[in-house]
Amino acid sequence: MFKDIRYRWALIAVVLIASSYLIWPTYKLYSLSEAEKSELGVIVMKELRDGAINLGLDLQGGMYVLLETDIPTLVEKIANKKTEELRDAIQEADQRSINNQTDFFEEFLTVANNRELRLFRNYNNLATTRDNESVVQELKIQRDNAIASALEIIRNRIDEFGVSEPTIQKYGANRIIVELAGVQDSDRARNLIQRTASLEFTLVLNEQWEQTLNKIDTYLLSDSSVLNIDLDSPIEKEELAEPETSGSAEDIFMEENILSEPTFDMSTPAEILKEKPFSGYLRAVPRGVGVLAKEYHIVKEILENSEVRRKIPRGGKFLWSNKFETAQDEMGNFIEFRQLYFVSSDPEISGGMIREPQAKLGTAGTDVSGQWVVNLSMSPEGTKRWSRFTGANINRQVAIVLDDKVFMAPVIRDKIPSGQTQVTGFADVNEAKDMANVLRAGELPAPVEIIEERTVGPSLGSDSIKSGGKAMFFGLIAVMIFMIIYYKGAGLLATLALMLNLIMVMAVLAGIGATLTLPGIAGLILTIGMAVDANVIIFERIREELDLGKTVRAAIDSGYERAFITILDANVTTLIAAFVLAWVGSGPIQGFAITLSTGIICSMFTAIFVTRTVFMFFSDRKPLKSLSI
Amino acid sequence: MRFLNKTNIDFISKQKIAGFLSITLIVAGIASLIIKGGPLLSIDFTGGTVAQIKFEKPVELGHLRETLSDYGFEGAEIVEFGSPDEVLIKTQFSGSSSEISEQLTLALGKTFTLRRVESVGPKIGKELQNDALKAIGLALLLILIYITFRFDRYYALGSVMALIHDVLITLGVFSLLDYEINLSIIAAFLTIVGYSLNDTIVVFDRIRENIPKYMKKTLNDVVNISLNETLNRTVITSLTTMMVVVILFLWGGKVINLFAFALIIGVFVGTYSSLFVASPVMVYFEKRSKKPFRK
After folding, report:
1. pLDDT in tens, A231-248
2. Residue of B1, B113, B202 lying closest to A485 (CB–CB)
3. Last residue of some domain: B120, B145, B163?
4. Any CB–CB contact under 8 A between A161 and chain B?
5. I need a surface site. Which of B60, B122, B143, B209 has the fewest CB within 10 A?
6. B269 lies in the same domain as B201
7. Among A455, A354, A511, A379, which residue's Cα sits nearest to residue A18?
8. Interface predicted TM-score (ipTM) over 0.85
9. By the CB < 8 Å criterion, does A469 face chain B?
């Protein structure tokens, strides 16, 4: 039917109309102003977004995070009888699965069988038959449940974070991809995702400060090898090196408090460190004990030293607050610090016992009226423990600990017999909501860790769009000019085909809901260069045929026919490479492969079919004597 | 307009010079790879963290290095990235990237903007490495099968030799210049594979067409005729592709700069190899085979 030129024009028209239809949402979406967008409303905008080509994170800024569930830990956690044999088996299976790049559960079953472990003994809480295979099968189901709930929890948190189009999807058996387009405050987002380990309420042991500090100081004085830090030259940090005067907060270290020493350098003076190599770094801050931001890594290093850790009294541990804070001292100087807590290492309440935490505005008429608070209740077991615990520790602090970071340490005002608890002291709604999130997530059933993270700032993204667009424009112009100069009329035809090709590629990308990434733009640009290849092959062939003395019509016909096979073979090989990339590759590489292969396939239509139709159109009307080629 | 009129270059007789040139380049590249202990892999494959930061004004790298090493970035690799006020910090800093940005703020104050942070865990790195090797191996295998099916196995051998040649030289150039191989460079390599093949197939296609046409000529002559006949096309397509790739290199932005560079090398070497490597290798094996198309 394609011998008849009318059908050919019809097909071209259909393709053009379909392409325009598919591109329309993309055009509309990116030409709208912010005001117009909000006017259209959420539903219309969602339709537009679904139909449009989305920009990848590398182009609009945002973050990509790949999370993985720590399966071995999960498997150990599930066991209701944790024996040494089980731990060893889990460890070996983990090692083997890493080394052989195999599935953990397969290895676990093998290891258990090799060691003649009867897993049912460790997992008699699972409803399975007694053989190892069915226990492992059940563990896999538990894993799937864990991932599913982790997904829900992350989704729940992200929704509250307010990202317009977040991607949260399961990837493989135990991974989760989180993509937050346009997220500016990546720290907050990161914390929100990463807040996954265990949540605990644990007692703050303020009364043990002195004893603990003395022990560490004494130890450090006796063994200076721990401190490989040059004490005589504290690290400079310009904006913090401001004149310093007496401290304002309550002095819990008596006369040792170095804030009372007038000095022009905020860093801890060497003389103090000679006497108190550890506690010298600690300062009184508004709500407890803090360490200057610029000295944070020194103190952290000391605390991570294994010998130092041994000196810490049993039953207690040091924990950092979740973020750096700034406070103003009496003279109006800002100090930047991180709070340090000494808490009980035996937590009283774990996340699983916490129920329905909610951020709310304090009830009118109470003393928290107008302030943001977080309300929560407890499970029956939690209620019992909480009642006993709060009763015994009135006016002491309890630390809310997530991922070994202290989020806040409110003071227990009263015994709480019902479990109905109110946490106060939030600066704004975000703080309260985030805290409720922390509490709501409670304890993720499985520990999740970030194994890959890519963050692109919005400025880099817009730079990339600009430079990608520029390269595309120049590339297109250069190729067009070249083709028109070299092949004249036929070259003009080829450039029209090239433009049609680009429109088609865009349409296909919009149609399949692809995301345009920077490598994708590179693929498009490469397509511009390679798509003309089909026309080059055809035109060269036609020239050869004309040189042989054929008539214009015959040269065109045999040129196209002979060139077709060549083009097909040549393109199929490139397509094979592109398909493999799209299949095996991930993320940006996939984007590149998809645009490149779409470009090649579309070029077969535009460069062969469309150009030939135009040639036919001219040569059918009257026999051509010569060809502009 | 026509660049080349009726050429008659004896490509096959140049195979000694070409072979010498190719082998020299490949040996230099491989030597560099051996001396440097393999290709310089990016954090995509080794795991680690890379941060791209932009300062308000140009910075002195030596000073920056000192400051950062005081703040836990000992041994970090710090290089200028595109312009003097922008740097790339590559580090094995173990810690979440929020800790990295915290640490950077501590070290440098608020004098910079964090443009990009990528951190890849060691386990994922190993997996990506496997995936990349799998992708390249799979692509080569499928292409080999396709060409064997469409032509014969000696053509397949010739074309695959040509692409191994292209990838080895590009890899060697990257090693010699101490450029990093990251995920997008792997994509560039596979594009080179596709492009080089495209070129080679066009020539092979013409050889296939010419063999029955020139029954009295030797295979060498047929190959030479075919190479000359397709020379115009080879040059022009290389030229248009090179134009866009060079434009991509110049204006495509820093992030895809290396990607574009790999493609420039690849297009150049790919064009060369389809003229001087693929066909001679094919001729060499075809002549020694028991059932040749033509002696």
Report:
1. 444 443 333 333 333 333
2. B1
3. B120
4. no
5. B60
6. yes
7. A511
8. yes
9. no
